[in-house]
Design a protein that fits this description.
The protein is of the alpha/beta class. The chain has helices at about 15-25, 40-50, 65-70, 85-105, 120, 130-150, 205-215, 220, 235-245, 255-265, 290-300, 310-315, 325-330, 340-350; strands at about 5-10, 30-35, 55, 75-80, 110-115, 160-165, 180, 190, 200, 225-230, 230-235, 250-255. It binds NADP nicotinamide-adenine-dinucleotide phosphate.
Length: about 350
Amino acid sequence: MSERKLILVIGGTGAQGIPVVEALSASPNYSAIVLTRNLTSTRAQTLASLPNVTLLQGTQDSLPSLHAAFAHKPHGAWVNLDGFTLGEKNELFYGIRAYEIARHHGVKHYIWANTDYALRIAGWDERYHWGHNDAKGRIGDLILAHGRGEREGGLLGGMAVSLLTTGPYMDMLFDGMYLPQEKEDGSFVWRNPAANGKIPLIALADVGKYSLWILNNPLQSTNLNLAVATEQVSFPDIAATFTRVTGIPATHEPMPLEEYLPLAEPYPHAYANWALGPDTPRDKSVMTWRENFSAWWRFWGEGKGATRDMGFLDGVLPERVRSLEEWMRLVRYDGRPRAVLKGLEDMRGGKGTRTGEGNKVV
Ligand SMILES: NC(=O)c1ccc[n+]([C@@H]2O[C@H](COP(=O)([O-])OP(=O)(O)OC[C@H]3O[C@@H](n4cnc5c(N)ncnc54)[C@H](OP(=O)(O)O)[C@@H]3O)[C@@H](O)[C@H]2O)c1
């Protein structure tokens, strides 16, 4: 029997990380060690009950924690930092340090859970800059530049790097920004500031499968930015698909950002790293939630992120969920809320301020 290769998963208890840990656990090739702040959370315990999965207590924004995690000498690492806790500046710092520390400890394959570098894609127009995407996107560029530079310089024995770039989760139709409202007459409405552009929604269930593909196919995945989506759809498309699947009338009603933002923020005058709670001191680099999500809605709503090569993705993962309609049927989508994001779940659970070590001193 071949020995399982250990993969360190950072962000493994989150919406995006859970399918990755599940896929590693179910595969014949890998085992997972999951970094979490809280070994006893429901999500952590559920993962710990899976075969080939162990937990490790620590935080993403602490250098000793990162060193301790990588000191387990994993073959690979799958790293998703949480911008909603860390904030842009800390995510940038710890994202770069996590990569450097992985190299120090001799990791063989590093997967950076990336997001679109919106500011660069939008031609450096500041109206499209928001912290929780651009921090990841900058690090993604840096990691790929190192990887490609080393290949060109003949350094083939180094660490393989791959970006797994996700857009907004399709699963956010259950939770967070994309949840519709049910009207008194039983119809549904998506009332939000999106224009009619196409958004590259990704079904989270496939994130685990794409991650396995990356690990299993290093020749194809090294230095690749695998930018994934299930389907690129506009909000009118989402409403029409919902009606086709459920038979329930649905519409998209665009509303101005100024009206939408105060209704949608997690609590009044939240910052972009809202998950730390309202009372944690922040420095002036941290965007407000409203600034952050104004740019977010502009970029995705105008279709600036609809860049995915769906034909290529069909080749990589022939069994992928092919469309929003297929996903809605698969998950029995009914427009009603279900918990997806751990950060929101923790906030609703009244756990108060979450600790992010790097935010203690500003
Ligand atoms: N929502 C979307 O559509 C979307 C799309 C693409 C990318 N993203 C990105 O995904 C990231 C969030 O991940 P998610 O969607 O999986 O969110 P989530 O469900 O809220 O999970 C957050 C994860 O981050 C971990 N975490 C947070 N702060 C930590 C810290 N200081 N130390 C250690 N672990 C920490 C949590 O672990 P514990 O609580 O167990 O410690 C949990 O695993 C964000 O940066 C966001 O930009 C989101």
